[in-house]
Amino acid sequence: MTKKITTSNHYTYTALLRGINVGGHKKVPMADLKKAFEKMGIENVHTLRASGNVVFEAADKNTDALAKKITAMLESTFKFSIPVILRRLSEIQNIIDENPFKEIIPAPDLRLYVTFLKEKPKGGLNIPYSAEGESFKIISIKDNAVYTVVDLSKTKTVDMMSFLEKEFGKNITTRTWDTVVKIGKTQKR
Question: How do residues 29-73 score in pLDDT, each as one tens digit?
């Protein structure tokens, strides 16, 4: 099980890396990613799934400054830019506890996604929002996160990511709901 640090000056974070290990591009082995974080003096590092999810403990209280340090370290280590969105693990656990998808009736063709935004959204998108043909719906936007349901029975090619980038910018990264739940179970609060 996970070793907990008991000092009150440590915080548990989740680093959500954008665009690694997708379609054979920007390959980052999870073992190398873990070592890179540990070399920074970050403790209790856990990687989850190859999409770039790192849960760790650090004394840094300033999330923005820590994200910049991690971004610089990743570029230095892997020799290409890897955008990072940083959240405290308690924020991820709050999302899970609130469960924005609780009203969604499960179906084989439905996929649930959480898109994490680096900045607060500025757009005037009316929520809930349904894409043309209802291939995806944005059901909620809260606390710099967008909650989307994709219906694969409506179309086989969903252009959700292009829409989200156009609406919210490129400083975003998306995870399946299952991945978010797995991140939340990594360590207790």
Answer: 999 999 999 999 999 999 999 889 999 999 988 999 999 999 999
- 23 and 75 part of one domain: yes
Distance, in Å, from the CA atom of 127 to the CA atom of 7, rounded to the nearest integer, reads: 42
Distances (CA, A) of 150 to 74, 112, 137, 165: 31, 6, 7, 16
- Cα–Cα distances (Å) from 144 to 11, 34, 88, 95, in that order, read 20, 26, 13, 11
Model's pTM, two decimal places?
0.90
Domain's final residue, options 67, 92, 117: 92
86-116 pLDDT, tens digit per residue, is 999 999 999 999 999 999 999 999 999 999 9
Return the CATH number at 31: 3.30.70.1280
Number of domains in the chain: 2
| Domain span at 45 | 11-92
Handedness of CA 153, 157, 123, 111 (dihedral sign): positive
Q: What is the CA radius of gyration of the chain?
A: 17
**DSSP secondary structure letters along 47-105:** EETTTTEEEEEES---HHHHHHHHHHHHHHHHSS---EEEEEHHHHHHHHHH-TTTTSP
